[in-house]
Specification:
The chain is of the alpha+beta class. It contains 19 helices and 21 strands. The chain is globular. Bound molecules: zinc ion.
């Protein structure tokens, strides 16, 4: 299916002239909050809608083409850009005839990029910007065939959150400025392109020319694109998985519960409002666990364990269809509204789908990780509402917004009971659907809906550490592991039958700080950790292998670091190596060798830690 630009502009015009869906109306009523991480001037001129027309060039590693912005307001429009080559700007009153207009690209800031000011002539509503991305654009990762799972064709994917979309599209890149979008993406004929949008071509043969449509307003960080030799497999009526051919069977098997997941979430928190829920399984270099791009979660293949033991990540990304994608943080200081709610909802989905024990076990592990990380964080970064002035919002991505946020919601749930709290959460998602809100708006809503609440919410949000009111998350499944660890310390045989990945993780983390070469060898002989196919277990084991200089795992360590780019796994490995002088030299050598396989998000984090 292909729609001409004209037909598309007409559709937009109709949409904006009074036949707009309810959500668009709701969206337009919400005031935009000042966002220190964007140059945009939405109070004067605000983008409502964009249309992209881009050519993907794997040889030059660029995207080139145009973006048409539909503007509400007048005067000059300020866009965010990062390392973009702006060729021209044109304005139009009707979206058909465009005339050149003046533009000025300002000086670039290291974090924010450069502001692009474009003059919107009297009466004009559309601005068209012709541009090209840089081969090193922060949001784009261009993979060589060698860096993919199939090793045959190159691959491209984007990661927009938090403020990277501006490195592939000049736009008003603030989570408070929601836009609808459509896109035409052209690439090689044998490649598939997918986006966080509706795509009717999923089951047809590749053509190299694709159209996408996102009719619900989304924050710019949720614009996402991936291009490669992808295949699609249906899972349920509204779910499916895209990935490279070599991973398709394993991915479809691992995610066979997708439909039940969506249904479980709907029963808890109201209808799923994004039509389809598909998952794109990326090559192993993907730097994060998952990204909740609407309609199309991007996920790391490291959660494919063969036994569905790590699918809570999908529950997490799906949960974002309510918390984050539907109700979004207005600024990056409010990030906990996205992630704290999502971790809470994820726990509830896991509980319905699997069991309360499993969900509590997963939560208990996260809480332990939070406490460990919090001990290393300055007090200012232990607040839910974090001060990011002069900082990259990626600095705020710790476990605090995620797990401390979820713990606060759990504390409220425990105080008022689920019969009060569940309707509250559901009502919150309905009230703020398709809006971007601040922490203050959440507080006011909470006060209005649960006036009897005694919990000191301000302490949770604005004070460091975990308050005394913090719920205790206990797991008997992990307590059983503790019993076995105690036996192991005494040299007694241990019972590990039916242990799942989280229990193994807890076991490895609970071993004594000092382990002899013999003990390491015995553990490996008995439990085959070096050969583990579970990425969580293997990663925890490799950390021990580095710490205790366990030689037989060193080949596995090098193989893991060359194959996997997920920051959560590789950063602690480099960190562990860097603790000794000799280890640091090795870490630097391995990093130099593998850097090209990592996404800039991961490589810059590792670079920073090795430079210390
Ligand atoms: Zn998340």
């Amino acid at each position: 299916m292909r729609i001409s630009l004209e037909a598309w502009m007409l559709a937009v015009a109709v949409l904006l002239s009074g036949c707009a869906p309810k959500l668009e109306e709701v969206n337009s009523q919400v005031p935009v909050v000042k966002d220190i991480h964007s140059y945009a001037n939405p109070a004067e001129a605000r983008v409502r809608h964009i249309e992209l027309d881009l050519q993907v060039d794997f040889e030059k590693r660029t995207l080139a083409g145009t973006v048409v912005h539909l503007i509400e307001g007048k005067g000059k429009v300020i866009f965010d850009t990062k390392d973009l080559k702006i060729e021209k700007a044109e304005a139009s009153k009707n979206g058909k005839e465009f005339q050149p207009t003046t533009f000025k690209l300002g000086a670039a800031d290291k974090i924010l990029g450069a502001p692009l000011e474009v003059v919107l002539p009297e009466g004009a509503r559309y601005l068209r910007i012709s541009y090209e991305t840089s081969p090193t654009a922060y949001a784009l990762q261009w993979l060589t065939p060698q860096q993919t799972a199939g090793k045959k064709a190159p691959y491209l994917y984007t990661q927009g959150e938090p403020i990277n979309t501006r490195s592939w599209i000049p736009l008003q890149d603030s989570p408070g400025i929601r836009i609808t979008y459509r896109a035409r993406i052209r690439t090689q004929p044998n490649f598939f392109a997918v986006m966080s949008a509706n795509n009717d071509q999923r089951t047809s043969a590749p053509t190299g020319d694709y159209l996408f449509d996102m009719a619900q307003p989304v924050p710019p960080y949720l614009l996402a694109l991936a291009v490669g030799e992808l295949q699609f497999r249906m899972i349920g009526a509204r779910t499916g998985v895209y990935t490279e051919k070599v991973m398709l069977d394993a991915a479809a098997h691992e995610f066979s519960d997708l439909d039940s997941m969506v249904t479980a979430a709907e029963q808890l928190f109201g209808s799923y409002r994004w039509d389809r829920y598909d998952v794109l399984v990326l090559p192993p270099s993907f730097p994060i666990g998952g990204m909740e791009n609407p309609r199309l979660t991007f996920a790391t293949p490291t959660i494919i364990a063969g036994d569905k033991s790590l699918v809570s990540l999908i529950s997490h990304e799906l949960a974002h269809s309510w918390s984050g994608n539907l109700v979004t943080n207005a600024t990056w200081s409010d990030f906990w509204l996205n992630e704290g709610f999502t971790v809470y909802v994820e726990r509830r989905i896991q509980e319905v789908l699997y069991s309360k024990q499993r969900s509590e076990m997963e939560f208990a592990i996260e809480v332990a990780e939070l406490k460990q990380e919090m001990a290393t964080l300055p007090e200012k970064d232990q607040l839910l509402y974090v001060d990011l002035a002069g900082r990259d919002p990626e600095d705020g991505v710790t476990l605090v917004p995620y797990v401390k946020g979820a713990l606060m919601l759990r504390a409220i749930e425990e105080e008022v009971g689920r019969e009060r709290f569940d309707p509250f959460v559901r009502g919150y998602f309905d009230q703020f659907a398709f809006q971007s809100i601040t922490t203050g708006m959440f507080e006011a809503y909470l006060k209005g809906k649960l006036p009897e609440l005694k919990l000191d919410v301000k302490e949770w949000i604005y004070k460091p550490g975990l308050p005394k009111s913090c719920p205790v998350i206990s797991s008997f499944l992990l307590a059983n592991v503790d019993v076995e660890i105690a036996k192991w310390k005494k040299g007694q045989p241990i019972q590990t039958k039916d242990w799942v990945a989280q229990q193994w993780l807890h076991f490895l983390r609970g071993l004594p700080a000092e382990l002899t070469a013999d003990q390491m060898a015995k553990l490996d002989r008995e439990f085959q950790f070096t050969k583990s196919k579970n990425s969580e277990t293997l990663d925890a084991w490799l950390i021990l292998a580095i710490r205790h200089k366990y030689a037989p795992a060193q080949v596995a360590l090098e193989e893991f670091l060359s194959r996997v780019g997920r920051q959560k796994f590789i950063k602690p490995l480099y960190q562990e190596m860097a603790k000794t002088g000799e280890g640091k030299a090795r870490a630097k050598a391995l990093f130099a060798k593998n850097k090209a396989n990592y996404h800039p998000i991961a490589s810059s984090a590792i670079e920073a830690l090795l430079a210390k």
